[in-house]
């Protein structure tokens, strides 16, 4: 089966920051997990390069907007590489192939009679690239997000007949309870639809940096329309000489932050219906990571700079922290001190130590070969047993419970640590209880192999190193089923060196 997952495309007017990285990592976890399940995955990310959010800063610098876009887009590509994103394509909306496809789709919307010309008057925020309704206005006609005074605009616009899709959208939400997750974001989007939809401006005469309407060369499209369409257009040119649209559309999951819910959960499906294209199957809305700095960390100072954290601790540590610390979907506080605390207690101690001890004991007591033994039922059974962990993780990730799935895996990490303390392999070695020692070492080696596979979507770099050391070439979940002993293992340096060693 095919599985198509996307991130939002990021405005090229800013530097990449943790918020961008967070969306990308979430989509990457889903993409990697689905590949592990053997699905035919396509993972898209990219940059949003049109509209006033790019035009205005370029103007201030006295350079053409394309130059600003060309300068900043590579920073977002580089961000993806640094956080370990496994995207299959990176779309830039200033790509002429995107423009051609957008024109084709918008022409269909026009031909189907879903646009009309009219006068628009309202309060406009150039930084949001959007008009605000009376309900949304801040005090003194300001933008509630940017806290800047808004401009009163009156002009001829083309309008998209959003109001005509009210019933279709209600039906879509009724037929697909999981169209928007988590459910509280679904309720938010649905109540917006139920309040009644107004038509929305599609184009403006005075935009300079944007795509012209195919049927009216005097107007340019709001950036939102061309941006949303990236999810669809990319498939037509992501692979040279091949159109992937049939293979991957409709998208399975758009991953996005709660601030752009309305555009994605209301306007986007309506626009697709207007063009006669099937809406996406679903979308995943995440909250914000809030910098709640209280105390200073040992080595990262006061503010968690994601790229500094990656430099010192590796991308896996950051990937782990973001999804461990804040329950995915909700807003939550993060900090440099919190990052280091989790790094030390969970990555270096719980997991890193378990791995080092297991590899060391297999080397010391069994010359680096995992002994042949039967699985210890004590490790398999129970709430935090290893049996069925792959199904449990899959089930949770299908429901987009990224934090809960990680917690389930971590419960097994703690279980294996307890097992070491309970069985005391060093005493078994001293007492010459070879049969029991074989069983314990086999159980531990199998345990870390299975947990490395389960953690692979979250922490691809370090689990690759570990699985290689364990002589496990597979990454798929099919490899979960227990492996007989006999594999030669290798000692490797600590996956997550202690804080003092890093700082
Ligand atoms: Zn604004």
Outline of this structure?
Helix content is 49%, strand content 15%.
Description:
This protein has 503 residues and is an alpha/beta fold. 49% of the residues lie in helices and 15% in strands. It has 20 helices and 15 strands. The protein has helices at residues 18-36, 52-61, 65-82, 96-111, 166-175, 183-194, 223-228, 230-237, 245-248, 261-275, 306-313, 315-325, 336-366, 377-380, 389-398, 402-423, 425-431, 434-455, 460-469, 499-502; strands spanning 2-11, 40-48, 89-92, 115-125, 130-132, 151-160, 180-181, 200-201, 203-204, 212-213, 216-221, 253-257, 283-286, 289-291, 332-334. It has a six-stranded parallel sheet, sandwiched between helices. A four-stranded antiparallel sheet has the order 5-4-6-8, with no helix packed on it. Strands 9-11-10 form a three-stranded antiparallel sheet. A hairpin with a 4-residue loop joins strand 4 (115-125) and strand 5 (130-132). The longest helix has 31 residues, at 336-366. It is elongated and about 90 Å long. The relative contact order is 0.11. The mean pLDDT is 95. The structure holds zinc ion. Zinc ion binds at residues 125, 127-128, 143, 145-146.
Small-molecule components bound? zinc ion
Task: Average the pLDDT over all residues and give the rounded result.
Answer: 95
The main β sheet shows up as:
6 strands, parallel
Rg result: 26 Å
* Number of helices in the DSSP assignment: 20
Strand residues, percent: 15-25%
Number of strands: 15
Strand order of the largest sheet: 3-2-1-12-13-7
């Amino acid at each position: 089966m095919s599985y198509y997952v996307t991130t939002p495309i990021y405005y090229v007017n800013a530097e990449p920051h943790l918020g961008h990285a967070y969306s990308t990592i979430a989509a990457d976890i889903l993409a990697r997990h689905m590949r592990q399940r053997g699905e035919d995955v396509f993972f898209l990310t990219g940059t949003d390069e049109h509209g006033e959010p790019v035009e205005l800063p370029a103007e201030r610098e006295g350079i053409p907007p394309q130059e600003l876009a060309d300068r900043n887009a590579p920073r977002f590509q580089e961000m993806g590489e640094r956080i370990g994103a496994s995207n299959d394509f990176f779309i830039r909306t200033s790509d002429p192939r995107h423009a051609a496809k957008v024109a084709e789709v918008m022409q269909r919307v026009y031909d189907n009679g879903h646009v009309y010309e009219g006068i628009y008057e309202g309060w406009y925020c150039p930084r949001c690239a959007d008009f605000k309704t009376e309900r949304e206005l801040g005090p003194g006609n300001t933008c509630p997000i940017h806290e800047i005074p808004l401009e009163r605009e009156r002009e001829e616009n083309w309008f998209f007949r959003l109001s005509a899709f009210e019933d279709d959208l209600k039906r879509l939400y009724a037929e697909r309870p999981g169209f928007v997750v988590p459910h509280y974001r679904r309720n938010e989007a649905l109540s917006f639809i139920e309040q009644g939809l107004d038509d929305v401006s599609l184009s403006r005469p005075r935009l300079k940096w944007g795509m012209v309407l195919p049927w009216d060369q005097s107007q340019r499209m709001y950036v939102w329309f061309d941006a949303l369409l990236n999810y669809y257009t990319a498939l037509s040119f992501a692979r040279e000489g091949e159109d992937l649209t049939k293979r991957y559309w409709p998208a399975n999951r758009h991953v996005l932050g709660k601030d752009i819910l309305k555009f994605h959960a209301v306007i986007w499906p309506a626009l697709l219906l207007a063009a006669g294209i099937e809406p996406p199957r679903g979308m995943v809305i995440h909250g914000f990571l809030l910098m709640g700095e209280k105390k200073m960390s040992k080595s990262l100072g006061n503010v968690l700079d994601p790229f500094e954290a990656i430099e010192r601790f590796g991308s896996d540590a950051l990937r782990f922290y973001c999804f461990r610390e804040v329950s995915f979907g909700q807003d939550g506080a993060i900090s440099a001190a919190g990052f280091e605390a989790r790094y030390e207690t969970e990555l270096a101690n719980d997991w890193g130590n378990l791995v080092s001890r297991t590899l060391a004991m297999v080397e010391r007591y069994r010359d680096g070969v995992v002994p042949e033994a039967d699985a210890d039922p004590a490790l398999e059974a129970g709430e935090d047993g290893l049996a069925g962990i792959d199904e449990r993780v899959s089930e949770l990730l299908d429901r987009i419970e990224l934090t809960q799935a990680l917690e389930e895996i971590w419960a097994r990490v703690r279980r294996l640590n307890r097992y070491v303390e309970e069985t005391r392999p060093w005493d078994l070695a001293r007492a010459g209880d070879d049969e029991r020692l074989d069983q314990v070492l086999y159980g531990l080696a199998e345990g870390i192999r299975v947990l490395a596979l389960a953690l692979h979507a979250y922490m691809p770099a370090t689990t690759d190193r570990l699985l290689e050391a364990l002589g496990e070439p597979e990454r798929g979940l099919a490899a979960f089923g227990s492996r007989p002993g006999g594999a030669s293992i290798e000692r490797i340096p600590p996956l997550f060196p202690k804080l003092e060693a890093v700082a």
